[in-house]
Amino acid sequence: MSDKYDVVVIGAGPAGYVCAIRAAQLGLKTACIDKWIDDKGKAKLGGTCLNVGCIPSKALLDTSHKFHEAQKGFKVHGISMDNLSINVGEMLDRKNKVIKQMNQGITGLFKANGVTSILGTGKVLAGKQVEVTDTDGKTSVISAENIVIATGSQPINIPPTPLHEDVIVDSTGALEFTEVPKRLGVIGAGVIGLELGSVWSRLGSEVVVLEAQDSFLALADQQIAKESAKIFKKQKLDIRLGARVVGSELKGKEVDVRYVGSDGEEQTVTFDKLIVAVGRRPFTENLFAADAGINLDERGFVFVDDQCRTDVPGVYAIGDVVRGPMLAHKGSEEGVMVAELIAGKVAQVNYELVPSVIYTHPEVAWAGKTEEEVKASGEEYKVGTFPFAAIGRAVASNEADGMVKVIADKKTDRVLGVHAVGPVAAELVQQGVIAMEFQASSEDLALTMFGHPTFGEALHEAALAVDGHAIHMPNRKRK
Asked: Domain FAD/NAD(P)-binding: where (predicted)?
């Protein structure tokens, strides 16, 4: 490891490994340092997202949806099933196989692209030096023309509910329950809380979600958020807004949680398991030597400019350790941008169009501006919405809950935001992202031919509805 590299990336999550691969593709001598190890002591690439986040949670979401569909949804199709059961152990085994397969995929990509994988913990020193501590505690120093910090984030814990073995857990522990809890509490009605809560709800848990904020999905378009809340309520997710957790008490294998409700009254609810999902914080502790020159903000995020440069020339930071939404795809695109910049190319991430997705069933997704944001800006705008209840493919598939919403500038007709709750909402919003990247108008979408019958027709009809031209629903009379 005494060689000097063009690029050293610290962290092999979606931001770091993508950056390393792209840098190597551009002809830069690249190394990627990561501390995750498997049960055999070998490198386990992919970071939080692959190992204990995005991918394993989606594996469980998919399994739980299939179980719930077989249990509750097959009858409407004329399919009868008796004595249906879920083997949680086998479900977890499948999840772990998915993780292993993807781990091996990244390892193969590193080899194919010539990225040097270094197992250990990285620390940024002054003068573009990186100290690496291996699994045995031995240290060595490598140097690089450029350093990219991609160390990710970790769950936030709160004093009222300290983690305790397998009773009070964070998002990582929630992926390892060996049986379906009868009563499950979730603190936080954000993306992680809703996804994990829905997994175990589908498998039979009575789920109560405690959310301190008074509004549901505050960052989403509120029309979509309200529609989503109705659907989740119908699915028996008990979401209590304005519920501020103030304490907890372990009683054997269960926990009493005290919270102050929106009415100001303190209440207590008892759970067999409790998931704390109140957000994540950047992983920057012990990452920098005192004289490294890297500046952090008051919350521990690395301070960077719009192109992820830190205050030290040649040192960049990407992904969850910097400003912006903590999303894998945002980090990946920052990784590509930084690699391109280091190679002398022109590159910039469009932070106005970062898609957000909640992988519940149905999905909730959005990109661009919400109606609240457009209204606050003072821009004149117009809106088109369309329900999946009027889409033939959705009705035929028994997936008719939800809607698609398109927001456009009133003067230019340029699409400003696309929002959806419903089947394949993420994929439909992604179509909207493409449209917005090319500065399309709602008329452009309206004049585009969509296959029939498809879920995508909901986006087409919502675009038509922007100007009152929807075909398969009566249009509102325009003032």
From this structure: 5-335
Strand, helix or coil for residue 312: coil
Retrieve residue 74's tokens: 């097959």
Of the three residues 325, 351, 377, the one that is the final residue of a domain is 351
| pLDDT tens digit sequence for 180-189 | 999 999 999 9
Residue 152 labeled ligand binder: yes
The candidate with the shortest Cα–Cα distance to 52, out of 41, 40, 38, is 38
Percent of the chain with pLDDT over 90: 96
DSSP string, 83-147: S----HHHHHHHHHHHHHHHHHHHHHHHHHHTPEEEESEEEEETTTEEEEE-TTS-EEEEEEEEE
Say if 225 falls within a structural domain.
yes
Diameter of the chain measured on Cα atoms: 73
pLDDT in the model for residue 1: 46
Domain boundary residue, one of 326, 351, 376: 351
pLDDT of residue 3: 76
The answer to the question of residue 222 being in a domain is: yes
State the total domains in the chain.
3
Q: Is 105 annotated as belonging to a binding site?
A: no
Start-to-end C-alpha separation, the chain: 70
> Active-site positions?
452
470 lies in some domain: no
Question: Do 212 and 112 share a structural domain?
Answer: no
Does 98 belong to an annotated binding site?
no
Q: What angle do CA 378, 383, 385 make, to 5 degrees?
A: 150
Q: pTM surpassing 0.90?
A: yes
Question: Is 151 annotated to bind ligand?
Answer: yes
What mean pLDDT is reported for the chain?
97
The answer to whether 327 is a known ligand-binding residue is yes
pLDDT tens, residue by residue, 323-350: 999 999 999 999 999 999 999 999 999 9
Structural domain boundaries, residue 437? 362-465
**Mean pLDDT over residues 288-309, rounded?**
97
Residue 206 assigned as binding residue:
no
Structure tokens at 2: 């005494």
Q: Tell me, yes or no, whether 236 and 338 share the same domain.
A: no
